[in-house]
Amino acid sequence: MSTTSERTILVTGGQGQLATSLKTLGGNRVIVVGRPEFDLANSETMAATLARYTPSLVVNAAAWTAVDLAESEIEGAKAANETGPAELARLCAAQDIPLIHVSTDYVYAGDKGSPYVETDPVTPQTVYGRTKAAGELAVLKAQPKSVILRTAWVYSGHCKNFVRTMVNAGAKNTHLKVVGDQYGCPTNADDLAKAILDIADQIEAGWQDRFAGIYHACGTGETSWHGLAVAALEEAVRHGQTMPVEVTAIRTQDWPTPAKRPQDSRLDCSKLEQVFGIRLPEWRNGVARAVDEHFAAQSA
């Protein structure tokens, strides 16, 4: 039997960025679990975890996010992104536990030419994207009381991510090359976590059928990977780091990867604001806070 409070939010994802942010912001109401205690490839561990903590809400922030490796490890990606979440949703439905499931912009090809809305057809181009798209449908089918949040370009001042990688690279190199022809909506993990906790508050006040479905949840505004890198490096200057002599924007074809990245995966997040009254902060503001956290951790 659970020894936690009645309003426990169970978060999967172990030591990941979003799970870490949810724990930091959510405090005692949030319990984070990860492998081997909770494994999306093992139904018994999922059932045992739900029985142990008896949560009032589950946030599934666990996933196979190694996009390139998924191209060759298809079964592993499918277990983590599709069949595992489907089983988790089934277990939640059996106990009438609402579920918030985190998904991705990779469900889109990135060829629309304008920000995607939730009703646009999904056209994933990678194993990662296909398994995440299939996972969305499987979750909604198994547990109608589910909120699917598609997010993108997640970074933070903790864990391994693009912003911290660029700041560290800028400290060691005078010249950097970053892809400049892919566009999206950078998302600070803390901002996404706050949005999830706000949604959790509304769900726990009483589930409404209008909550169910798919939403886009990203930082406000848009940029390229090159733009995000330059922003991170400019913020690092405030902490005494020297700006690289040159940060060159290169083409996607100049940086080949096993998995094809969406060229333009900007997401329209107006539905999230309409239903839940939530709008994530401007992406540049989030970068400043993440870089501040990064340097604070280094000096601690």
Per-chain topology:
Layout: E1 9-12, H1 17-26, E2 30-33, H2 43-53, E3 57-60, H3 67-70, H4 74-94, E4 99-104, H5 127-142, E5 146-151, E6 154-155, H6 162-172, E7 175-179, E8 183-184, E9 187-188, H7 189-204, E10 213-216, E11 223-224, H8 225-237, E12 246-250, H9 270-276, H10 283-299
Parallel strand pairs: 1-2, 1-3, 3-4, 4-5, 5-10, 6-9, 7-12
Antiparallel strand pairs: 8-11
Helix pairs in contact: 1-7, 2-4, 4-5, 6-8, 8-10
Q: Per CATH, which architecture of the domain at 9-160 and 187-220 and 267-281?
A: 3-Layer(aba) Sandwich
- Gyration radius, to the nearest Å? 19 Å
The assembly state of the depicted protein chains is single chain
Note the overall shape.
globular
The end-to-end span amounts to 38 Å
Structure in words:
Mean pLDDT is 95; it is low at 1-5. The radius of gyration is 19 Å and the shape is globular. The protein is built from ten helices and twelve strands. It has helices spanning 17-26, 43-53, 67-70, 74-94, 127-142, 162-172, 189-204, 225-237, 270-276, 283-299, and strands at 9-12, 30-33, 57-60, 99-104, 146-151, 154-155, 175-179, 183-184, 187-188, 213-216, 223-224, 246-250. With 300 residues, the protein is of the alpha/beta class. The chain has a domain at 9-160 and 187-220 and 267-281: Rossmann fold (3-Layer(aba) Sandwich). It has a six-stranded parallel beta sheet with strand order 2-1-3-4-5-10, with helices on both faces. Strands 6-9 form a two-stranded parallel ribbon. Helix 1 (17-26) links the parallel strand 1 (9-12) and strand 2.
